[in-house]
Write the structure tokens for this entry.
Amino acid sequence: MAEIVFAAGAPHAPGLIGLLEAAPGDVKDIVVTTYRSLASAMVSAKPDVLIVFANDHLANSRIRAYPDFLIGMAAEHRGPFEWFKPWIGCEDYTVKGAPEIAAALFNGMTRRGIRMFARTENLKFDDNISVPVQLTRFAELGIPMVPVLQNCTVPPIPDQHRCYAVGEALGDFIRNDLPSDMRVALLGSGGLSHEPGGARYYFIDEAFDRWFLDLVASGDHQKLLRELTLERMEAAGSGGTAELLSWVVVLGAIGSKPGKSFGYTVHRDFKCGVGAVLWDMNANLPKRRAA
């Protein structure tokens, strides 16, 4: 039985790189420390592969043929895609892929009734993969990666219930289909509250962000599924906040476990909310009854 040894969620706003040099010193320290802490925890967990659920921003598929989940099967993952470089301000990177695990993921999820799409060519990565890869210095860690880009843009998007069910199937796949000695890391990349290109482009809903981070760190998944609605995420930032559904996939895979929320900060001179959660894979919480 393969084991999930690391699970975390973190935002990937492009400003976390593009605006970082001009950020106040204390904010810069928080950003760097947050992602380096995730990298350190991942290294300590000694995973054989990292599966990242992130968000596609209309870069890889046409609207009329838009997959809800797209697996990257390339032997190498390169980014950022040329078009996004000036926008993100991110350096080039190459990360080792895991084509056999990606193929197994596609087949295993299909057998569990979860329809995913997959491509062998390099996907077009923007901030979704590029920001966490650069800030954790992931390319230097030597851990293979399987990226899965999910639809958070083209309606109807998978809601919190669907994403959690996908995560449950993912957890079952990891435990029962992968080699028994394999150690798997999971990362949900997306959020926090923001409204890209909208009327509230630089608005950050601090109250929502703190509520969300506390909730997912609590391990109360029944409350999460009741309250983290698409309507609530849209109210916190239309077209962007729903990226947090990538975290919900990870939560479905690991089950109810407590986590540590850290690094959250909002500064008037830095238009990105920063904050992450690292879940304790050695802990189990008692099941709660639905209210």
About this structure: The beta strands are 3-10, 49-56, 69-72, 76-79, 93-96, 117-119, 145-151, 183-189, 259-267, 270-279.
